[in-house]
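Structure (tokenized):
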């Protein structure tokens, strides 16, 4: 176990073996130090809390240091659960009511404590074993005699089990050795007491051996210490001998008291019986420790310890400001006064003098001096805390050990009382211990606290300076020497007592025999592996002849696992005994579907582990091929193999059939009337015309035509049924109307062409017989009533372009008249407000050169629109032809949506397929993703992505359109305005081929999907419509509707496990999961414990669901063009925005802290703990966990700034300051997918997205056109493109920051620094934009073009455009924008 790596650890095969065993029964895991026992415990805790979420798990550790370390480790492994420690420094002796305990444990799932805390809680009735589902005893070998663990089991567990076996908790013990001593029956007693059986790995022995190195045992002979005592130690002895009971003011206070209570009377009696008080006990402890140090380390160490204790105690007394009569104060003063004489004695001895160092310490110094090398790590175990301090000081003072960095490490003292002999600085100790784990310290001098489980790195040398009291201490301390060729050193006295010497000789022999037995077991296993054994299974792929057999199965499988997005080696769990009969199970990474993570070998009777593993690998790889994860060459399917290069495919030109004729095969005897309405404001419209055609529109057609003034004309064409009027009379009226707008006869003369279609225009009301051509002078002579009325359309003789003229009050004031020329679509504005236009631009015309037909602004604008209107009618008829032919198998309706879908941008302005293509793109992605997710349940996310790219690729869609011959129904030709003629009837001859970009054809497929979706009144109908289109376009895929997939993929049972996690998510997202396994999958990163699928596949599906939801919401705002929708969608579905929402998802959990600062009183203080969504994710390694934690801190720092910026624009740069890893956005996508599969409702997914804030900007982006949504880089690109400036953004990574530079035309313009690359580049682009715009606004003049150096770059901003203005003689056309 290593707390430095706080991410979820990878499970080893032998750990999974022990975990699976613990799920079957109560066990004691007996494994070597450093083999990962606590990881097994974390797996077991998670499984238990999922199984029994309403109970808690209780984890005990034998000391405070180990308990705190286990809390740190378990918190990193199980972040989704709430846990706390209960230790002595919590002043638990003051927790005297059940309410206090209930408050402290409210909302707590896992408790870590010492065994005594658990025993006291049970003994006082504050805890009940019925409320605990799992008891974990770390260092379980301590469960013996009357230890707290033994008493807990004996007094509470076993009696409860005799009453009800279902109420007792499960038990898991962890130990490096089940024996506390050398008695044969100690293991059996431990098993009986813990109601568990001892288990050690029996299958994956080789892997287990790799993590449990056996050090070389090195005994060192020493002689006894015969040095005389120092003066300081003699003086301390004299002081202690002279101190009497009657000298202690505490004793005298009790003795002289007149009215003692029962407690004080008992204390007085105890003092007199034992002839000691707390102060005298402290003096005795000081003397005892000093004498021990003298014997084991020498007089220097003893004196140094005495001086340190006395001076520290005196310093403490001096820091007390007030005198008071408390017992503690009297005791402390008495000790200080008693030791006052020692403060005056000099510290004469030096460490360099051998006479002052014990022989044992000298031998240690010599040994350490000979062993030094770079990177060495040494632990020296001593018995007493004082010895740790003194030996540390001694080694630091030795010149021959100056290359070593030494510190001491002792347990944390419990309680609040300060001891005289306590010299350890816990704060310094913790930092030094962390440095030791990282390699910055070399020697750790530790008490027994470092023997058991404390997280210490594997070391080179373990030295037992003091003899261990128990056999297990040897085993545990030996286990710290886990590096290759490590040593385990202990001292033996050659002149000591014979019994002692014999005891160590016996222990050494026993230890060596234990090593030999272990090595013999391993050698037996290895010898069994040498047996010749073959497997003859062969798997051959018929299509390629690729062969899989036992000789290459493991190699193939390891190669496949290495190609996954989260590479991990396969594990093999064995079952049986080598040499007798063994089988294996292959465990594959969790990024694969759960059904492929555990694959058993075909046989369970192999003699060797080698063949058992090959068998399992063979079956696993065969399953991967059947599942489609490896190809027919038995090679892994990599995502890049399936990607279609499309970067430039959209620019490819195709030669496709010309537009389908819509006026062929017409019956001139059957004519159909259509009502044409043109409005230009809410309450204003032009006169209504009746348009008669030889074909009828199948539906009402509505579209907009743009003006150069950006005002839009709304056109509505409504079919009225068959028309039975007088054709000849109507044709004459039509000619008159045409002559109003078209001076040349090309338009109206084509009405008499026998090959032209019957086209009739009639006013819905009004007379037109009197409208004939006159010179303007003659017309005004006979129509003076027109003065100050509506403006007139006038022409110059023999010129086609009309002018607008408003007659003045005085018609004959001048023969020169000012008229406004009509340029392109300005005619509409001119007709509505000719005076305004005349003031803006007019031409002086001679009155006698002008002609008019007396046409005002009544019908002219509508007639001028006839070419465009007829063009749109043709597009609608063409779309209807497609629906009746190539699209007849779909559910598409003949209507506005289909017409728009088949109308390319080049053929019309406002009405084109771009908006529908935007919507259809989301539909294609959604249905494709769902289809692949359901069809390929075994495929990884990478494979699914590759398959999706194949289906949605432009080349695939373009091919599909051409295969069904739909391209001929796409309208691409623009309406002709100049020299327009009435369309002619068609013939059966094919029209010449036309050129289309392949992207235009592919986009048409998506726009048809968008039309199909809009045709549906309900979601299910819309889905069915889209699926019918996909079945036509891509028949090779067996398409199902989303409703079918939801039914197929849904979990029928209600999984009630993992209630804790489901409750947390409900508080964060407002959604309650029916099935917890989906939720767990959505929050599990790759490469975790096999059997639990990771979020990758769900993230793949969730991305498409979010895309559909966001795009349909944006599309619902009909005022947004495709460009604005695309940019808004890019912002809303961006990684930075989704990650920001994920970092902000949280809920508040009330946590009760017990305040014991008031004497004999407890106060429950409730605080709020913020539980973040990101903390619930289980990670595969330390990197993403650390990145997420840092991003969470940055989110808190920048949140207010980001929220403020959201009011005016999308804060790209500030969002990037969070530097969130990809997993932050992934969990939003995976959770959305999990919700969809859990309930089958897109509405619920949208509600959750609203809940976490993803959708809150949609309305602002749609309504406020000034709301900036583009990235700074894009805006800089646009500005530089307009000014034809070449710009480039580059970034460099520094130690603590990133630098980004913007160069314009090759010269550096901006340089910034930021916390990450994305932020730096965005910030640089923003700064460059500000500089360019400011320069352009304030500094650019013509003279700037002569500037040099950096000004040359700035001068180029306003280069004059080469685009020419509109030619006044150009014909009027519809603006495509």
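Design, position by position:
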């Amino acid at each position: 176990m290593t707390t430095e790596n706080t991410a979820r650890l990878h499970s080893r095969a032998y750990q999974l073996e022990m975990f699976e065993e613990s799920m079957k029964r109560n066990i004691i895991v007996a494994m070597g130090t450093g083999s990962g026992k606590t990881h097994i415990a974390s797996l077991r805790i998670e499984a238990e809390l999922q199984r029994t979420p309403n109970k808690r798990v209780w984890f005990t550790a034998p000391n405070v240091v180990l308990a705190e370390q286990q809390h740190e480790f378990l918190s990193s492994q199980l972040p989704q659960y709430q846990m706390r420690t209960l230790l002595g420094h919590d002043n638990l002796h003051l927790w005297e009511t059940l309410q206090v305990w209930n408050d402290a444990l409210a909302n707590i799932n896992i408790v870590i404590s010492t065994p005594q805390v658990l025993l006291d809680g049970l003994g006082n009735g504050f805890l009940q074993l019925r409320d605990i589902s799992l008891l974990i005893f770390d260092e379980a070998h301590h469960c013996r005699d009357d230890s707290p663990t033994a008493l807990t089991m004996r007094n509470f567990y076993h009696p409860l089990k005799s009453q009800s076996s279902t109420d007792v908790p499960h038990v898991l013990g962890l130990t490096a050795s089940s024996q506390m001593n050398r008695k044969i029956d100690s293991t059996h007693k431990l098993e009986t007491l813990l109601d568990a059986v001892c288990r050690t790995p029996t299958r994956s022995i080789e892997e287990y051996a790799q993590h449990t190195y056996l050090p070389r045992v090195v005994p060192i002979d020493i002689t006894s210490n015969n040095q005389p005592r120092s003066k300081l130690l003699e003086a301390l002895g004299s002081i202690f001998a002279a101190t009497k009971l009657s000298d202690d003011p505490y004793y005298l206070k009790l003795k002289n008291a007149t009215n003692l209570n029962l407690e004080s009377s008992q204390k007085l009696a105890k003092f007199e019986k034992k002839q000691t008080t707390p102060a005298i006990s402290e003096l005795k402890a000081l003397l005892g420790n000093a004498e021990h140090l003298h014997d084991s380390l020498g007089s220097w160490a003893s004196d140094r310890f005495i001086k340190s204790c006395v001076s520290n105690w005196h310093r403490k007394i001096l820091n007390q400001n007030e005198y008071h009569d408390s017992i503690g104060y009297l005791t402390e003063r008495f000790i200080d006064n008693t030791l006052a004489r020692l403060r005056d004695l000099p510290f004469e001895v030096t460490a360099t003098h051998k006479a002052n160092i014990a022989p044992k310490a000298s031998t240690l110094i010599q040994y350490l001096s000979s062993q030094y090398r770079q990177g060495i790590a040494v632990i020296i175990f001593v018995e007493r805390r004082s010895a740790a301090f003194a030996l540390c000081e001694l080694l630091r003072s030795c010149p021959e050990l100056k290359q070593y960095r030494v510190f001491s490490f002792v347990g944390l003292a419990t309680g609040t009382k300060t001891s005289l002999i306590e010299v350890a600085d816990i704060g310094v100790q913790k930092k030094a211990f962390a440095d030791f784990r990282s390699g910055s310290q070399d020697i750790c001098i530790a008490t027994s606290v470092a023997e058991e489980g404390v997280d210490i790195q594997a070391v080179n040398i373990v030295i037992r300076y003091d003899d261990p009291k128990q056999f297990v201490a040897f085993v545990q301390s030996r286990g710290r020497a886990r590096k290759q060729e490590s040593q385990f050193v202990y001292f033996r006295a050659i002149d000591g007592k014979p019994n002692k010497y014999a005891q160590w000789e016996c222990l050494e022999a026993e230890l060596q025999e234990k090593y030999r037995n272990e090595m013999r077991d391993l050698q037996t296993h290895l010898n069994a592996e040498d047996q010749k054994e073959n497997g003859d299974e062969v798997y051959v792929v018929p299509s390629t002849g690729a062969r899989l057999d036992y000789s290459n199965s493991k190699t193939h499988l390891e190669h496949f696992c290495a190609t996954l997005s989260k590479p991990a080696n396969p594990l093999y769990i064995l079952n049986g005994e080598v040499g007798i009969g063994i089988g294996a199970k292959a465990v594959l990474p969790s990024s694969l579907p759960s059904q492929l993570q555990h694959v058993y070998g075909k046989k369970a009777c192999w003699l060797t582990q080698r063949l058992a593993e090959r068998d399992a690998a063979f079956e696993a790889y065969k399953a991967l091929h059947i599942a489609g994860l490896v190809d027919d060459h038995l090679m892994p399917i990599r995502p890049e193999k399936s990607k279609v290069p499309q970067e430039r495919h959209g620019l490819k030109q195709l030669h496709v059939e010309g537009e389908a004729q819509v006026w062929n095969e017409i019956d001139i005897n059957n004519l159909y009337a259509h009502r044409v309405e043109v409005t230009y404001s809410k309450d204003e419209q032009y006169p209504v015309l009746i348009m008669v055609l030889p074909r009828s529109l199948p539906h009402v057609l509505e579209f907009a035509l743009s003006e150069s003034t950006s005002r839009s004309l709304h056109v509505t064409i409504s079919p009225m049924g068959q028309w039975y009027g007088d054709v000849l009379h109507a044709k004459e009226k039509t000619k008159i109307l045409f002559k109003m707008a078209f001076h040349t006869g090309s338009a109206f003369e084509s009405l008499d062409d026998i090959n032209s279609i019957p086209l009739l225009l009639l006013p819905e009301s009004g007379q037109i017989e009197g409208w004939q051509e006159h010179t303007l002078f003659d017309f005004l002579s006979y129509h003076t009533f027109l003065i100050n009325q509506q403006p007139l359309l006038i022409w110059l003789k023999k010129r086609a372009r009309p002018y607008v003229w408003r007659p003045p009050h005085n018609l004959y004031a001048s023969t020169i008249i000012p008229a406004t020329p009509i340029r392109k679509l300005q005619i509409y504005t001119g007709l509505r407000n000719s005076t305004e236009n005349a003031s803006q631009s007019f031409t002086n015309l001679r009155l006698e050169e002008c002609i008019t037909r007396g046409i005002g602004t009544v019908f002219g604008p509508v007639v001028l629109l006839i070419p465009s209107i007829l063009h749109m009618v043709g597009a609608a008829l063409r779309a209807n032809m497609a629906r009746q032919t190539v699209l007849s198998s779909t559910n598409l309706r003949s209507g506005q949506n289909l017409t728009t879908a088949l109308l390319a941008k080049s053929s019309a302005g406002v009405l084109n397929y771009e908006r529908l293509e935007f919507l259809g793109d989301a539909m294609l992605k959604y249905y494709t993703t769902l289809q692949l997710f359901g069809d390929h349940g075994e495929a990884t996310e990478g494979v699914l992505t590759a398959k999706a790219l194949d289906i949605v690729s432009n080349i695939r869609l373009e091919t599909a359109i051409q295969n069904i011959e739909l391209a001929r129904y796409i309208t691409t030709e623009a309406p002709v305005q100049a020299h327009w003629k009435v369309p002619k009837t068609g013939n059966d001859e094919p029209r010449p081929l036309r050129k289309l970009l392949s992207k235009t054809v592919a986009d048409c497929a998506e726009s048809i999907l968008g039309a199909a979706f809009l045709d549906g009144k309900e979601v299910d109908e819309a889905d069915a419509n889209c699926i019918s289109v996909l079945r036509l376009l891509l028949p090779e895929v067996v398409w199902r509707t989303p409703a079918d997939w939801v039914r197929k993929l849904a979990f029928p049972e209600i999984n009630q496990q993992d209630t804790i996690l489901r409750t947390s998510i409900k508080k964060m997202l407002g959604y309650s999961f029916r099935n917890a396994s989906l939720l767990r999958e959505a929050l599990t990163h790759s490469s975790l414990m096999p059997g639990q699928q990771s979020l990758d596949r769900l993230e793949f599906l969730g991305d498409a669901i979010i895309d559909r939801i966001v795009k349909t919401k944006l599309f619902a705002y009909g005022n947004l063009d495709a460009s604005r929708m695309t940019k808004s969608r890019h912002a809303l579905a961006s990684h930075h925005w989704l990650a920001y929402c994920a970092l902000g998802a949280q809920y508040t959990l009330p946590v009760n802290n017990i305040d014991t600062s008031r004497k004999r009183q407890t106060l429950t203080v409730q605080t709020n703990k913020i539980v973040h969504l990101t903390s619930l994710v289980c990670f595969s390694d330390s990197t993403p966990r650390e990145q997420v934690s840092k991003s969470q801190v940055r989110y808190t720092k920048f949140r207010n700034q980001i929220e403020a910026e959201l009011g005016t624009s999308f804060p790209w740069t500030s969002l990037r300051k969070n530097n969130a890893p990809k997993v932050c956005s992934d969990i939003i996508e995976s959770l959305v997918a999990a919700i969809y599969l859990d309930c089958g409702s897109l509405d619920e997914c949208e509600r959750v997205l609203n809940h976490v804030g993803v959708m809150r900007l949609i309305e602002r982006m749609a309504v406020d056109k000034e709301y900036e949504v583009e990235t700074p880089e894009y805006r800089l690109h646009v500005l530089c493109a307009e000014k034809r400036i070449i710009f480039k953004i580059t970034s460099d990574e520094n130690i603590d920051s990133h630098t980004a530079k913007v160069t314009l035309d090759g010269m550096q313009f901006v340089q910034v620094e930021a916390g990450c690359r994305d932020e730096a580049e965005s910030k640089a682009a923003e700064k460059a934009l500000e500089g360019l715009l400011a320069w352009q606004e304030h500094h650019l003049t013509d003279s700037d073009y002569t500037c040099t150096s950096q000004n040359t770059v700035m001068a180029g901003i306003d280069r004059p455009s080469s685009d020419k203005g509109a030619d006044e003689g150009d014909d009027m056309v519809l603006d495509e924008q």
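Reviewer-requested clarification: Residues 498-529 form the longest helix (32 residues). The longest strand covers residues 712-723.
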